[in-house]
Design a protein that fits this description.
By secondary structure, the chain is α/β, with parallel strands linked by helices. The chain is about 30% helix and about 25% strand. Strands 1, 2, 3, 4, 5, 6, 7 and 8 form an eight-stranded mixed beta sheet that branches. Bound molecules: guanosine-5'-triphosphate and magnesium ion (MG). The site of magnesium ion has 5 residues, from α1.
């Protein structure tokens, strides 16, 4: 979190992370569109529309007293070919949305991506809030929260939302939980003026 007293802004970095094709870019696009900031999102993609490096953009939220929170929203690529870029995207993050793919045959992909995330986060200074979107709930043979939690051995403190990013279901809810969690986590170590 970066507090700029001169410009009265707080910068929060929130990253969407998860296995390949789980719906990270779709979730972010829906979020920016629904808040009327679609033109502020930049996607670095390859020629077939897959994320090559990341998506990123900023959504400003006004606070009382002329302060603004700038939510800097990023997604990492899930493709292993670009694996090295994921660590870079995560640096300095204040919160993570882990977008999992609910299809039963992809449980191991979710587990591998979760383990990678935990390993990379270990290198950060403090505990960072994480929210899980168990995405693609509209597909047949999608797993439920209980199965997912036990397979990944998720701590109870991590919220799981069953989402459908293509319809925007539970995306705003996940974002709000993370946004408030990230502010709370930072306020504990750096009191907000
Ligand atoms: N059925 C269904 N399809 C989805 C959902 N969310 C995303 N998709 C589709 O899944 C495919 C991959 O979505 P992306 O948002 O590009 O996935 P990503 O996680 O950004 O992928 P990478 O950046 O390549 O790792 C696209 O065809 C989306 O339309 C969902 O909730 N349900
Ligand atoms: Mg993507």
């Amino acid at each position: 979190m970066i507090v700029d007293y001169g410009n009265r802004t707080v910068g929060l970095k929130l990253v969407f992370f998860g296995p390949a094709m789980s719906g990270k870019t779709t979730s972010i696009r829906w979020l920016f569109s629904s808040l009327n900031f679609a033109d502020r999102l930049t996607s670095i993609e390859n020629t077939v529309g897959r994320t090559m490096f990341c998506d990123f953009g900023t959504i400003p939220f006004s606070l009382g007293g002329s302060w603004t929170i700038n939510a800097h929203i990023w997604s990492a690529t899930g493709q292993d070919f670009y694996r090295s870029t994921r660590e870079v995207v995560l640096v300095g993050s204040d919160g993570i949305v882990f977008v999992a793919d609910s299809q039963r045959i992809l449980l191991d992909e979710n587990l591998a991506s979760w383990n990678e995330l935990i390993t990379l986060m270990d290198e950060e200074d403090s505990a960072i809030p994480i929210v899980v979107c168990l995405n693609k709930q509209d597909l047949p043979d999608s797993i439920d929260e209980t199965t997912f939690r036990s397979y990944l051995q998720l701590p109870d403190s991590v919220p799981v939302l069953e989402s459908i990013a293509t319809r925007g279901e539970k995306i705003m809810e996940a974002f709000q939980i993370l946004f408030h969690g990230a502010l709370r986590a930072n306020a504990l170590v750096r009191p907000f003026p």
